[in-house]
Amino acid sequence: MGNNSSPKLKKKDLGQLMAQSLLIFYGKCRPKVGSPCYLQLIEGAVPVSMRRSRPVAAPLMPRLKTELEGLEKEGIIRKRTASRLDRSST
Length: 90
What we know:
Elements: H1 7-20, H2 61-73, H3 84-88
């Protein structure tokens, strides 16, 4: 998807990308706003995850809460009542 593409072409390209990658784009996919973001993927790389959540600066908490509530309302995410570690001990 290039910067010079029409909105109609961008929407078509996004739809094709989402269809090819259903496990990644399950739910709603929104275009990124702001400066471009470039990702370099390495063939055969093993995905990693963080072991704990990252702290959020106090001034950003209201915006984060609003965004999370919106994602929950759209059905993209849901609240968890217990962590995986809590459930494994029961």
